[in-house]
């Protein structure tokens, strides 16, 4: 996961939910990517709240990606740390061969080891796949009207997947040069605007139609509402192992404003932020 002061409350809730629902919490290792910045150290809050954890923390240099970022529909999507997932394989130690990447706005309500143990079947990434979604909307007319660009999906059946929940074969990612491949599409975006969102579309360009599909229960996404207005959304039908407040609205902000969506009450039991803030003050 990434570690950022603005999303610290969500990160702590996610960590707590993982530990609470894992039959063997001592088998779970946490890796955090953090950018250098002034102000309170988010890691101090993590350590104060979970003193028995020994997380690994890696510094992500924002300058590595800042020049490659193009403006998207939402300012939060343009932050360098949002792109850190592209560089996981370059950042983690060589002996780390598989990771689960999670956004900071999730809670896990099942044993995360079930997700960890998925058979990747030779793929570099596993994630819930949504083939009913209108895939064309993630790219501009400039992309689809260019035969050379749109040909990137030839031979694949591309489907949308959300990069906020991914199982990644880090070793295979390194060998395949996937970081460079994602970066190359970001260069194209700077030259000719081919998508509107932040770090998601270049992942789709490289991997859509070539991932291991995981049961949808592992990413009940979109609970933050739509990207423009953040309107409330209800749960999708079916079993749930992971709740994801992707979209504009975050549950801690809506709860604090006393204008929560119904699904935000599912996040509230994992909110440890106030307890951590008190511990830090003491």
TrEMBL record:
Residue ranges that the Swiss-Prot or TrEMBL entry lists as coiled coil: none
Gene3D superfamilies xrefs: Spore Coat Polysaccharide Biosynthesis Protein SpsA, Chain A (3.90.550.10)
InterPro entries (UniProt xref): Glyco_trans_8, Glycosyltrans_8_dom-fam, Nucleotide-diphossugar_trans
GO CC, any one term: Golgi apparatus
Superkingdom of the source species: Eukaryota
Keyword Kinase attached: no
Protein name, UniProt field: Hexosyltransferase
Species for this entry: Dichanthelium oligosanthes
């Amino acid at each position: 996961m990434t570690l950022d002061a603005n999303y610290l409350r969500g990160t702590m809730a996610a960590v707590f939910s993982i530990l609470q629902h894992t039959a063997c919490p001592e088998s779970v290792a946490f890796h955090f990517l953090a950018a250098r910045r002034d102000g309170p150290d988010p890691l101090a809050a993590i350590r104060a709240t979970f003193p028995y954890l020994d997380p690994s923390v890696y510094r992500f240099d924002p300058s590595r990606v800042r020049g490659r970022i193009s403006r998207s529909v939402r300012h939060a999507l343009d932050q360098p740390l949002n792109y850190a997932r592209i560089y996981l394989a370059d950042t983690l130690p060589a002996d780390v061969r598989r990771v689960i990447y999670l956004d900071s706005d999730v809670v896990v309500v099942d044993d995360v080891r079930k997700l960890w143990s998925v058979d990747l079947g030779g793929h570099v990434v596993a994630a819930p796949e949504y083939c009913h979604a209108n895939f064309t909307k993630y790219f501009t007319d400039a992309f689809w009207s260019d035969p050379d660009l749109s040909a990137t999906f030839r031979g694949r059946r591309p489907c949308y997947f959300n990069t906020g929940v991914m199982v990644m074969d880090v070793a295979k990612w390194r060998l395949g040069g996937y970081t460079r491949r994602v970066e190359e599409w970001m260069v194209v975006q700077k030259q000719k605007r081919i998508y509107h969102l932040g770090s998601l579309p270049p992942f789709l360009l490289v991997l859509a139609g070539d991932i291991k599909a995981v049961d949808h229960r592992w990413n009940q996404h979109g609970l933050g509402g739509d990207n423009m207005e953040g309107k409330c959304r209800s749960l999708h039908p079916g079993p749930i192992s992971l709740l994801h407040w992707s979209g504009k609205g975050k549950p801690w902000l809506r709860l604090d404003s006393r204008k929560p969506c119904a699904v935000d009450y599912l996040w509230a039991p994992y909110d440890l932020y106030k307890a951590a803030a008190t511990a830090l003050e003491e």
